[in-house]
């Protein structure tokens, strides 16, 4: 009987530890980062940048985290009067120095002195993403403004002015 009580007590302690991980915000950030890195190798199936969207009386404001992206590789397209498409790509190339390449061509004993970098950690992901945002009200595509600074893309998406209720005169 004591063995059974200890088994359940240990099982509940393990469950408590597992659920306490879910309360830690860094757990989700680390999991999201690792998923992005894994899925990068699988074709970026679920890699999406973190996005905040707020609504004002006359517009929607979006803040999208895109660290490491060049603004020429970020694309914003309007599909219809309620849909905004956001896409982008980033590539990180790691090339050996030309001196290291020359030494690679020499014998294996001489290649011990290669000057090319020896990677310890390579966490910067390469890949692309695509996202679509459907707004509840029609948007004014001609007045959309976007800026990119310090890895954050800011997009202001104005709403189409609502004329409200209108009475039609009968002739």
From TrEMBL:
PROSITE patterns: SHSP
InterPro entries for the chain: A-crystallin/Hsp20_dom, HSP20-like_chaperone, Small_HSP
Keyword vocabulary terms for this entry: Stress response
Sequence ranges of Basic and acidic residues compositional bias: 92-114
Keyword presence, Cytoplasm: no
Keyword Chaperone: no
Domain SHSP: 41-171
SUPFAM superfamilies noted in UniProt: HSP20-like chaperones (SSF49764)
Positions of region (Disordered): 91-114
Record-stated family: Belongs to the small heat shock protein (HSP20) family.
Name listed for the protein in its UniProt record: SHSP domain-containing protein
Source species of the chain: Rhizopus azygosporus
Lineage: Eukaryota, Fungi, Fungi incertae sedis, Mucoromycota, Mucoromycotina
């Amino acid at each position: 009987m004591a063995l059974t009580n200890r088994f359940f007590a240990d099982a509940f302690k393990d469950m408590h530890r597992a659920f306490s991980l879910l309360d830690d915000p860094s757990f989700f950030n680390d999991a999201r980062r690792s998923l992005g890195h894994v899925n990068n190798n699988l074709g970026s199936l679920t890699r999406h940048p973190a996005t905040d969207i707020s609504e004002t009386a006359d517009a929607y404001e979006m803040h999208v985290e895109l660290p490491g992206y060049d603004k020429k590789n970020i694309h914003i397209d309007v599909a219809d009067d309620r849909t905004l498409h956001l896409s982008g790509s980033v590539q990180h190339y790691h090339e050996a120095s030309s001196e290291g390449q020359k030494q690679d061509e020499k014998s294996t004993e001489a290649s011990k002195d290669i000057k090319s970098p020896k990677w310890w950690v390579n966490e910067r992901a390469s890949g692309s993403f695509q996202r679509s945002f459907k707004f509840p009200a029609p948007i004014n595509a001609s007045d959309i403004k976007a800026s990119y600074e310090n890895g954050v893309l800011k997009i202001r998406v104005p709403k189409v002015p609502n004329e409200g209720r209108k009475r039609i005169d009968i002739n």
